[in-house]
Amino acid sequence: MLNQWTSISSTGRVPVPDSDSLRVLLVEDSSLLAARLGELIRRLPDVDLVDTVETEAAAVERISEVVPDVLILDLHLRVGSGFGVLRSLAKDGRARRPKIVILTNYGLPEYRREAETFGVEAFLDKSRDYFRLPGLLRDFARERGGPGTH
User: Fold this and answer.
1) What are the strands, taking DSSP E only, across the chain?
2) Is 42 in a helix, a strand, or coil?
């Protein structure tokens, strides 16, 4: 389902919304979970889901194109990995990188430690911490100072 601001461009991509809302890029290879997360994100005020992708290469490309405020990142992707995305962001050297929320089925301590070396804002286990995502996104939107967040 597309929001009122969306229409499919000639490239087949949904254009970036022109708003002051928190812009979220979702990187998730499970279509079922991506749909559920998309519904959850769309219900949040001052938060826009700008796109959903399922591979490392697509994530890196879309980060450059849409410049999201928040990246929700699965570690195990259809092709590539969330760690590959994190490495690309670390090499990129951009002054402003998105806040990163890892959302994974693999909440292993070694994965958490590695993710923390990249400065992720949150590391969530899909089976235990899914419910924390809306609160994190609301907090990020408030920090950003979007409309209606004060």
Assistant:
1) 22-27, 47-53, 70-73, 99-104, 122-125
2) helix
Can you tell me the distance from the alpha carbon of 46 to that of 24, in angstroms, rounded to the nearest whole number?
Answer: 11
Fill in the amino acid letter for 148.
Answer: G
Name the DSSP class of 122: E
Radius of gyration of the chain (CA): 14
Handedness of CA 116, 120, 125, 128 (dihedral sign): positive
Other Cβ atoms within 10 Å of 8 Cβ, number: 10
CA distance 37 to 64: 22
Q: Which residues contact 100 (CB under 8 A, 6 or more apart)?
A: 70, 71, 73, 86, 89, 118, 119, 120, 121, 122
Q: How confident is the model at residue 11 (pLDDT cuts 50, 70, 90)?
A: very low
Domains along the chain with CATH numbers: 22-144 (3.40.50.2300)
- pLDDT single digits (tens) 82-137: 999 999 999 987 767 999 999 999 989 999 999 999 999 999 999 999 899 999 99
Residues 112, 99, 7, 41: is their CA dihedral positive or negative? positive
